[in-house]
Specification:
The structure holds two protein chains of two kinds. Chain A is an all-alpha fold. Chain A has seven helices and no strands. In chain A, helix 1 packs antiparallel against helix 2, helix 2 runs antiparallel to helix 3 and helix 3 runs antiparallel to helix 5. The N terminus of chain A is likely disordered. In chain B, helix 1 crosses helix 2, helix 1 runs antiparallel to helix 4 and helix 3 crosses helix 4. The N terminus of chain B is likely disordered. The chains are: A mainly alpha, B mainly alpha. At the A-B interface, helix 1, helix 5 and helix 7 of A face helix 1, helix 2 and helix 4 of B.
Chain lengths: 141, 86
């Protein structure tokens, strides 16, 4: 696997692990289970895009739309839980997980957008770097 | 136990990261270097120092530096900076 992935995916992975941890530490919460499932699916898609030999335009827009919709849904969820959020404290199930994931997904959409804004020419011949190649190119700095 | 730092989404990252765009730019720089001189690329890949590259290529250090400088500049232009340890 490509070692270097952007901040958003790393955060998503951290968030997914954190949510999975919550599942084991607290009583069953369907919302959290569903969010873990959604995050797993998005992470798989995200990796698929990054690891592809070429960043496929069709796939890119599909994932971007999915992330956008998920983000909107989560933000709606956040609004529904606004009262709980204002009273959330350390020892409660952190309902701000929804906010956290909405931020993560928003960041993901922004990064996808940024990645295609000025790299169309380079995308055509894009070949992912191995870990060693990445280390070598960064050694130039 | 839930870590206190989880209350903020601005947790420290585990490793130095690049954005997707920077990663693609770094890949382009590396492929460009490979096209210009595959031997130097192979030496870099093997973790050789500038001095070792100079010896292997029978170049002086100035030649090594001037060959690598444009690629380093491309990385800088893409906003890629030397990773710093936290």
């Amino acid at each position: 696997m490509i070692r270097l992935i952007d901040n958003t995916l790393e955060t998503a992975l951290d968030t997914r692990d954190w949510l999975a941890g919550l599942q084991t530490e607290h009583e069953h919460d369907e919302d959290i289970s569903h969010l873990v499932f959604v995050l797993d699916a998005l992470i798989v898609d995200y990796r698929r895009v990054i690891e592809k030999r070429k960043l496929d335009e069709h796939g890119y827009y599909g994932i971007k739309n999915a992330l956008t919709m998920a983000s909107i849904l989560l933000e709606g969820h956040l609004t529904d839980h606004a009262l709980e959020l204002t009273t959330w404290s350390y020892d409660q199930i952190p309902t701000n997980a929804y906010e956290l994931i909405a931020v993560v997904l928003n960041d993901a959409v922004m990064q996808f957008t940024e990645s295609t804004s000025s790299i169309h020419a380079r995308r055509r011949g894009f070949q992912p770097l191995s870990d060693d190649e990445l280390r070598a190119v960064l050694s130039l700095l | 136990m839930i870590s206190d730092t989880l209350r903020s989404h601005k947790r420290p990252q585990k490793t130095a990261m690049l954005t997707v765009k920077q990663y693609i730019d770094a890949a382009a720089v590396w492929r460009d270097l490979e096209r210009h001189n595959f031997t130097v690329a192979t030496l870099l890949l093997a973790g050789k120092s500038r001095r070792e590259i100079a010896a292997a290529m029978r170049w002086d250090m100035t030649s090594v530096r001037s060959f690598l400088a444009p690629f380093r500049n491309d990385l800088h232009a893409a906003g890629i900076k030397k990773p710093t340890t936290p």
